[in-house]
Amino acid sequence: MTAVEPAVAPNPQDHFTALVDWACSQIQASETLLATYTGEDSDFVRLNGGAVRQAGSVRQRSLSLDLIEGSRHADGDIRLSGDMAIDQARVAELLDQLREIRAVVPEDPYLLYATDDASSERIDRRAIPATDEALAAITAAGSGHDLVGIFAAGDTFSGFANSLGQRNWFQTATFNFDWCFYLRADKAAKNTYAGFEWNDSAFGTKVDWSTQQLEALKREPVELSPDNYRTYLAPAAVRELTDMLAWDGFGLKAHRTKSSPLLRMATDGATMAPGLTITEATATGTAPNFSDTGFARPDSVTLIDGGQLADQLVSPRSGKEFGVETNGANTWEAPSSLAVAPGDLAATDALERLDTGLFVGNLWYLNFSDRAACRTTGMTRFATFWVEGGEVVAPVNVLRFDDTIYRVLGDNLEALTDDAEVLLDPGTYHQRSTDSTTVPGALVSEMSFTL
Fold first, then answer.
1. Distance between CA 215 and CA 429 in Å, rounded?
2. Out of 67, 276, 319, 372, which could bridge 326 as a Cys pair, Cβ 3.0 to 4.6 Å?
3. Is residue 169 a part of any domain in this protein?
4. How far is it, in rounded angstroms, from Cα 52 to Cα 327?
């Protein structure tokens, strides 16, 4: 991996403040400037066969500017070098370009940005491990196994500023180890370990479970016929389902335009299980607590409350279009820090409570088969097992499910585990994602498998 190094590596918050102060001094009296600063200082390590194969670090900073005059605006972004003179020159050039573009664009009827000063600072840097220390634990755990994975760790940061004087800063340090013990072909025991603080005991528990799965995968697989099966969904599988709900399920505009997959909850009184509560939990997540137009995001927005549809995520544009107060949601009105409240099923008792049925560790290739009914289809992946009497019997060949969320997380949801797991988005497009999901496992009385 090629490291991306700025010419100078200043403190990112100081760099942000100095650069946006200078940028705001360059605008004209009739203009308003919005500035969003993003960046990371991250280490990345790729492992294969239980050994480090590739390692590197990335330090990058970007600045997005939105130059407004009346109801017309134009936006653009630049990569930053870290050298103030170079970065000021890049900002000046971008401002000139934005003025040229703004002169020919129409007025924007839904333009809305913060005008009250909602300045804030949140820096959450706990005890993420030094990369060499984490790798020592990882390679020891992989001894004798074909361990394959990506370890990423470091700081991500975001800043917002406007020419009205508002300044916001958000910085957090996290690690994410996305890995598996690979056996052969499509057989692997998949796992993740992520968070703010490394705990050897917690990591060891995950390694032990993956080792047990790996041994079970060596057995002759079971071929199941299409049917309804009692099912336990591990947290990673539950996250795939909540990701589908997040696809227009919780946004104001999707509900107002009747395109939400949860529309039946709004129009027909459909409900989910009484024990299901879903929130946008910004206060405990890893995404910024402010929007790119300067609006503060509340600590929590309740989206599903005891199985009932509750509040919606409202972006500034949707807020203005539909006359609703914004809660600082992103443009696509999807959760960035989704959390499902845990239940009362001890995670260690999940297989015993399942008794006989399917243990599903992962799902993938999900899509809506009937969006209006919130019917979702997808495939099992990696370690899926047939369980009898609370004991893993054998792996199960790949299955396709096709079922509605109203059944899986509604009528058929028996219990949620008492331990919700933090799962960080492993995406690294442009930079490390700051999205997170906190979810428990789910015991479902029956789930429909069609292939």
1. 35
2. 319
3. yes
4. 44
Span 70-106, pLDDT tens digits: 999 999 999 999 999 999 999 999 999 999 999 999 9
- Distance (Å, whole) CA 211 – CA 217: 10
End-to-end Cα spacing for the chain: 40
pLDDT in tens, 366-394: 999 999 999 999 999 888 999 999 999 99
Tell whether 285 and 337 lie within a shared domain.
Answer: yes
pLDDT at residue number 429: 87
Q: Is 127 found in the same domain as 248? A: no
Least confident of 9-13, 39-43, 154-158: 9-13
**The last residue of a domain, from among 214, 230, 247:** 214
Residues 196, 127: contact at Cβ < 8 Å?
yes
Query: Cβ contacts of residue 17 below 8 Å, gap of 6+?
Result: 159, 161, 167
Q: How far is CA 33 from CA 29, 98, 103, 318, 381, in A?
A: 11, 11, 16, 21, 47
Are 174 and 240 members of one domain?
Answer: no
**Strands, DSSP E only, in 86-216?**
120-124, 146-162, 167-184, 187-195
Query: What range defines the domain where residue 45 resides?
Result: 12-214
Statement to judge: residues 331 and 415 lie in one domain: yes
DSSP-assigned letter for residue 332: T
Q: Kind and range of the H or E element at 385? A: strand 375-388
What residues does 228 pair with on adjacent strands? 448
Residue 39 within a domain: yes
CA R_g for the chain: 24
Instruction: Clarify whether residues 251 and 223 are in a common domain.
Output: yes
Helix (H, G, I), strand (E, B) or coil at 390: coil
Whichever domain contains 74, its CATH number is 3.30.2290.10
**Residue type (1 letter), 218:** K
pLDDT mean over 51-57:
94
Give the SS3 label for residue 350. Answer: helix
Q: Which of 40-49, 53-62, 181-190, 290-299 has the lowest mean pLDDT?
A: 181-190
Q: Which of 163, 185, 214 is the C-terminal boundary of a domain? A: 214
Is 224 in the same domain as 350? yes
Burial class (CB in 10 A: 0-12, 13-18, 19+), 24: middle
- Domain check: are 189 and 257 in the same one? no
Residue 430 lies in a domain: yes
Residues 271 and 162 in one domain: no
Report, as an integer, the average pLDDT of 261-284.
96
Amino acid at the residue 191 = N
Residue 4 has pLDDT above 70, yes or no: no
Is residue 7 situated within a structural domain? no
140 contacts: CB under 8 Å, gap ≥ 6: none
Alpha carbons 220 and 74: distance in angstroms, whole number: 60
The count of structural domains within the chain is: 2
The answer to whether residue 413 scores a pLDDT higher than 50 is yes
